Amino acid sequence: MCQLLGMNCNTPTDIVFSFTGFATRAGRTGEHVDGWGIAFFEGRGVRHFVDHQAALTSPIADLIRHYPIKSTNVVAHIRKATVGAVALENCHPFVRELWGRYWVFAHNGDLKDYRPALDGPYRPVGSTDSEQAFCWIMQSLAARFADCPPPARLAAELETLTAAIAAHGSFNYMLSDGTALYAYCSTRLHYLVRQHPFASARLADDEVSVDFSQVTTPDDRVAVIVTEPLTADERWHAFEPGELKVFVDGAPIR
Amino acid sequence: MCQLLGMNCNTPTDIVFSFTGFATRAGRTGEHVDGWGIAFFEGRGVRHFVDHQAALTSPIADLIRHYPIKSTNVVAHIRKATVGAVALENCHPFVRELWGRYWVFAHNGDLKDYRPALDGPYRPVGSTDSEQAFCWIMQSLAARFADCPPPARLAAELETLTAAIAAHGSFNYMLSDGTALYAYCSTRLHYLVRQHPFASARLADDEVSVDFSQVTTPDDRVAVIVTEPLTADERWHAFEPGELKVFVDGAPIR
């Protein structure tokens, strides 16, 4: 299985603290060593880093741990290969363009006997079930809407599409276009919202603490969504299985 | 204006030497400081780095200069903004998927009054003339071929498409799907092929030399394509204006 990490904020925020704990699970506190990836939205643009090495030892992950890239929407993934070889083209998140926006997708879980009819413009490059699911979601949304609908409308459509895919197995995923972050829990996903008054937090996986009151303004709001809680001293909320949440400006809108 | 750098090889090769000279033009020996980007194919996968900072000072460019990523097809770009703001979404190279392959595109030049009819599945995310041209090329190729044709056949189609675009201005570009590198010269482009017996070379823009005989095997072959020659002591070939060359396994096939 893999693990997912997402961040959605109302002001550009770096993910160094959370990514440091998350990447520790790629070899030290977890066995997710078969590649990793992260995508940061900056305005309409996206920075996309993927690597088939373990995030604990990858020089590119080291850059991400030490270079504070500020973003309002981030999706990251550490992989333990189940379907598809350990190869760059099988690393999540995947990126496609739809309606003149980049869409970023990462999945945790396994789909059995999943062979969607991909007769639209999106085809998988690698060999994962995840990228097939992403291409089918993009194809279906492109066929359904001529332009990007509001997040709540898109989420309603996603719920229909997700139900069809999740019938094939576990399908926790994150999807973002840089304005909203859609997170679906099939089996396991947690989130928290950090906002004023900010406090300190300590990573569960590493000897690292941060006092968020020192690095924020009172207006900042940050939602962090992750497979397993990243900190030991904050209150994380578990998603219900089957629940899709949409995060905008650092908070869930549904 | 911008500058382009491409590499096509018969064995995975790093681009540290060439990129070091190229990035020097982003502030020290050139004025291309409005962002940069580079894409490396590894098998079917692609590593894509873009940054709106200057390549001379960007921490991510520093990683590329020091971390030897091996690839058989690389496309890089340093930008001096003419059309489109200095922003991440306007940094080349751009990436799209077609026929289950990633396609990477970078452009140097200016197109006047260029408004192609983009009624297919590819839409620009940023505001450059370059991304419009790329989307139109992808749309046209998708409409023309159900699957990827051999490089020579694709090149013939590209020549037709390129002529329509180049009527609007200067349109030097590089395009790759990770198996071939297509390079078109509208005004200025150079290339060389390094092969056995390998010799030393010295950058024109920096005090850096390399003895390729120490880092190659006799079977290696590497084509480097660039706007302005990168080395002072090698024989570079100038493209003819209007010429499209296709590089496969480190050599031009036409």
What this model shows, in words?
2 copies of one chain form a homodimer. Chain A is of the alpha+beta class. Chain A has one domain (3-108, 171-252): Aminohydrolase, N-terminal nucleophile (Ntn) domain (Glutamine Phosphoribosylpyrophosphate, subunit 1, domain 1, 4-Layer Sandwich). Chain A is 19% helix and 34% strand. Chain A contains 4 helices and 15 strands. In chain A, a hairpin with a 6-residue loop joins strand 10 (200-202) and strand 11 (209-211). The radius of gyration of chain A is 17 Å and the shape is globular. The two termini of chain A are 27 Å apart. The model of chain A has no long low-confidence stretch (mean pLDDT 95). The A-B interface holds A 42-52, 59-60, 63, 67, 87-91, 95-97, 99-102, 120-126, 142 and B 42-52, 59-60, 63, 67, 87-91, 95-97, 99-102, 120-126, 142.
Helix-strand sequence of chain A: EHEEHEEEHHEEEEEEEEE
End-to-end Cα distance of chain A, whole Å, is 27 Å
Cα-based radius of gyration of chain A, to the nearest Å: 17 Å
What is the CATH architecture descriptor of chain A? 4-Layer Sandwich
- The CATH class of chain A is Alpha Beta
Number of helices of chain A: 4
Overall pLDDT level of chain A: 95
Largest beta-sheet characterization of chain A: 7 strands, antiparallel
Count of β-strands of chain A: 15
Oligomer status? homodimer
The residue fraction in helices of chain A comes out at 10-25%
Low-confidence stretches of chain A: none
> Based on helices, strands and strand pairing, what is the structural class of chain A?
alpha+beta
Query: Which pair of chains forms the biggest interface, and how many residues does each contribute?
Result: A-B, 35 and 35 residues
- Taken from the alpha-carbon principal axes, the silhouette of chain A is globular
* CATH superfamily heading of chain A: Aminohydrolase, N-terminal nucleophile (Ntn) domain
Strand percentage of chain A, roughly? 25-35%
Strand order of the largest sheet of chain A: 3-2-4-1-12-9-13
**Overall number of structural domains of chain A:** 1
